[in-house]
Amino acid sequence: MADFSSYNRYLAVAARAVRRSLQDGPRLAAERRGNMDLRFAKWENGKQGEVKNLADANNQAIASQAESK
Amino acid sequence: MFSRAVRPAVRAGTVAATRTAPPNAANFATLREIEGRLKSIKNIKKITNTMKVIASTRLTRAQKAMSDSRAYGQTSNTLFEQAETKPLEDKKTLLVVASSDKGLCGGIHSGLSKATRRVLADNPNSDIVVLGEKAKAQLSRSNPDAIVLSFANVCKDIPTFADAQAVADQIALLPTDYASVKIIYNKFINAQSYEPDAVEAYSEEAITQSPNFSAYEADEETLSNLREYALANSLFWAMAEGHACEISARRNAMENASKNAGEMIDKFQIMYNRQRQAAITGELVEIITGAAASAE
């Protein structure tokens, strides 16, 4: 658990691993359920910040976490 | 020489006459206008009808996903019901508004925004997280200071658990410590009606303070995991239910739009026929009077 910043991220990684190890037929159906294409923006003092892709932001956060270790 | 010089002027005169349309052609012009309007209404009807058919086919899938995720979310909430968890009063609340990006589906987005404002008026010490462009546009006009996060691209298709997890993850990363998270979503009652409702996701403190929680003998360490997971579960439930509501509302809205377009087409068709008949009668009267005058 220590390697993950949150339980949900841990679950997401575990779920991805399971999906990728499935057989071809079920895998395609399962991977469609794993798609996530959200964009998000932080708000400060009533102003919308920069709109970012959530998956990219997560990957960057993971990468920077790995580097800092 | 003279005739050649005068000809362009004559030609210019005839062109001007056809452009300005002589007064006796007034009926003719409106006839053309009605015809154009009729055509565009017919096109609109085709479009709304197609959207209705699409929404109907998506509705069955959305409803299935909704009933599955409802069972899932309610199971997840059973723990808190059994433990009789209550939200803490004194600290900040986070409102998560589960709307979506697309319009053309009646009043479900404004219903959600109104419900959010009502909750916000009851406990002003709250922050808002918005899912979806529509509610974001509405809430950013009335309560821009309360918004802390907004998500776009939500609920394009049936929401996945990965979506809910990613949102829950971002909420967990927020700097403020919230006593409870209220997820405001549209509750699906039947295909015709839906109403804004809220599900709660509790903080660790609220969970530990709940009266019957000791019966579960849970470790302290796992509590934050439980909290995040429960938040993702509730979000997933709310998003799936909101999605089904949206599709069903869109189906109804498009059905009504098609019906109204049909009524308008009937009305314009009658008006068109009447105008045309009037124009023909007018022409006939002119011909007959002309013939009678020349016969004398």
UniProtKB/TrEMBL annotation, chain A:
It comes from the Eukaryota. InterPro entries: ATP_synth_F1_esu_mt, ATP_synth_F1_esu_sf_mt. Signal peptide: none annotated. Belongs to the eukaryotic ATPase epsilon family. This is Mitochondrial ATP synthase epsilon chain-domain-containing protein. The lineage of its organism: Eukaryota, Fungi, Dikarya, Ascomycota, Pezizomycotina.
Automatic annotation (TrEMBL), chain B:
It comes from the Eukaryota. The keyword Nucleotide-binding does not apply. PROSITE patterns: ATPASE_GAMMA (PS00153). Keywords: ATP synthesis, CF(1), Hydrogen ion transport, Ion transport, Membrane, Transport. It holds the Pfam family ATP-synt. It is a peripheral membrane protein. Its main location: membrane. It is found in: Membrane. Belongs to the ATPase gamma chain family. PANTHER family: ATP SYNTHASE GAMMA CHAIN, ATP SYNTHASE SUBUNIT GAMMA, MITOCHONDRIAL. F-type ATPases have 2 components, CF(1) - the catalytic core - and CF(0) - the membrane proton channel. CF(1) and CF(0) have multiple subunits. This is ATP synthase subunit gamma.
